[in-house]
User: Which sequence fits this backbone?
C-alpha cells in the first residue's frame, strides 16, 4: 500500500528537484520537474484534479510523462514513487559530522541565480533558503569579466538590486532577508571587477580568482593581497581554485604565499571562505589549518548554483569542526545585524 501524502503536487515536484540537485544530477532532469511545478502553480486544486482525471495534464507546457505521474500520485494523496525513491537514496544526512555547527549557521554568503550561471530564479533560491531555516542568504552572481558565467554588467547588477528589493518586499514578515552581494573577480592586478559605486551598494562581497590560475606564485600572492586590501572585500572565495572531483574534471590549486595572504586577511578583517562544494574542498586542509592558526575569520559557503546545492553547507561545517575552528570565528554564525556591521564597518 502506498504511503499517504498531503504535501501537494507543487511541493512534491520541488522536493524531487531539490533532491536531484543535492545529488548533483544532470541539470536537464532538474529543470523538467521545476518547470512542471511552475506550470501547475497557477491552477486551483480542483482544476489540477480535473486535468489529471481527463488526461490533459500533459498538455500543460512543461509537464511531461514523468512529472505527470508525480502530479497524479500527489493529487491522489499518495507519495509519488519517484519522490519516495529519491528520499531513500538522497534524503538522508550528507555527512557523518558537522551537524552541530550547521545548526549554528544563520545563513550563506555565496550563492548564484539564473542571472549568471545558476540554474534557478532568485526567488526560488530564496524560498529554498527559508525552507532550510536560514535567516539570510547572500545573492552573489558573477561580475562582468566572467563572460562564460554570464557575469553581470554594472547595468544588470543595478537592475538585480531592484529585484532583490522586490523579493524582500514579498517575503516581508517571514524573518528572512535576501542580502545583496556579488562574487567579484579578482583582476590580474588585484583590482575588483566592478565599479566602487556599485560595490558600495552591496551588503556582502566575495572576491575570487577565476582566471590565470597557473600564474606564478609571487604574482598570484600580490594579486590576492591587492584584492584583500580593498576595503570593499569581505570574503576571499575558494582561495586555491582547485577541483578535486566532479564532472568538470580535476584541477590543481593555484600557488601563492599562503601565510602572507592569510596574514593580510587578518590585518584587513577579511574572512577566508570554506567552500563547501564537494568538488572544491577549498582551502585544502593544510591551508585551512594555517588560516586557523594565523587567526583568520571564516565563512562557510555553499557556492550553490541551484536550490538543492544550498544544502552543501554541512560539508564545510564538517571540515571546520574537524579543524577545531571556534564557531564565533565563522561570520555566518553571526546574526544579520552583526554580519552587516562587520561587512560594512
Assistant:
Amino acid at each position: 500500500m502506498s504511503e499517504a501524502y498531503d504535501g501537494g503536487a507543487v511541493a512534491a515536484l520541488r522536493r524531487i528537484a531539490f533532491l536531484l540537485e543535492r545529488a548533483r544530477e544532470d541539470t536537464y532532469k532538474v529543470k523538467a520537474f521545476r518547470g512542471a511545478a511552475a506550470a501547475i502553480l497557477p491552477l486551483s486544486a480542483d482544476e489540477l484534479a480535473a486535468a489529471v482525471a481527463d488526461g490533459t495534464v500533459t498538455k500543460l507546457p512543461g509537464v511531461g510523462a514523468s512529472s505527470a505521474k508525480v502530479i497524479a500520485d500527489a493529487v491522489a494523496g499518495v507519495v509519488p514513487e519517484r519522490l519516495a525513491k529519491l528520499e531513500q537514496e538522497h534524503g538522508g544526512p550528507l555527512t557523518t559530522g558537522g551537524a552541530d555547527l550547521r545548526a549554528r549557521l544563520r545563513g550563506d554568503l555565496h550563492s548564484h541565480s539564473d542571472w549568471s550561471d545558476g540554474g534557478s530564479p532568485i526567488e526560488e533560491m530564496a524560498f529554498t533558503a527559508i525552507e532550510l531555516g536560514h535567516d539570510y542568504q547572500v545573492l552573489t552572481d558573477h561580475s562582468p569579466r566572467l563572460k562564460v558565467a554570464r557575469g553581470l554588467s554594472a547595468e544588470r547588477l543595478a537592475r538585480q538590486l531592484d529585484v532583490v528589493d522586490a523579493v524582500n518586499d514579498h517575503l516581508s514578515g517571514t524573518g528572512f532577508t535576501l542580502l545583496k552581494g556579488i562574487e567579484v573577480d579578482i583582476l590580474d592586478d588585484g583590482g575588483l571587477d566592478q565599479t566602487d559605486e556599485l560595490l558600495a551598494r552591496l551588503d556582502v562581497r566575495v572576491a575570487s580568482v577565476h582566471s590565470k590560475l597557473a600564474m606564478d606564485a609571487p604574482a598570484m600572492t600580490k594579486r590576492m593581497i591587492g584584492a584583500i586590501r580593498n576595503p570593499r572585500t569581505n570574503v576571499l572565495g575558494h582561495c586555491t581554485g582547485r577541483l578535486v572531483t566532479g564532472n568538470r574534471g580535476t584541477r590543481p590549486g593555484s600557488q601563492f604565499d599562503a601565510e602572507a595572504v592569510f596574514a593580510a586577511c587578518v590585518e584587513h578583517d577579511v574572512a577566508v571562505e570554506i567552500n563547501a562544494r564537494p568538488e572544491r574542498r577549498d582551502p585544502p586542509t593544510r591551508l585551512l589549518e594555517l588560516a586557523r592558526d594565523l587567526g583568520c575569520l571564516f565563512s562557510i559557503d555553499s557556492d550553490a548554483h541551484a536550490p538543492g546545492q544550498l544544502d552543501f553547507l554541512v560539508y564545510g561545517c564538517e571540515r571546520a569542526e574537524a579543524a577545531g575552528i571556534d564557531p564565533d570565528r565563522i561570520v555566518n554564525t553571526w546574526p544579520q545585524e552583526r554580519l552587516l556591521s562587520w561587512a560594512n564597518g
User: Anything to note?
Assistant: The chain has a mean pLDDT of 96. The longest strand covers residues 177-185. The longest helix spans residues 154-170.
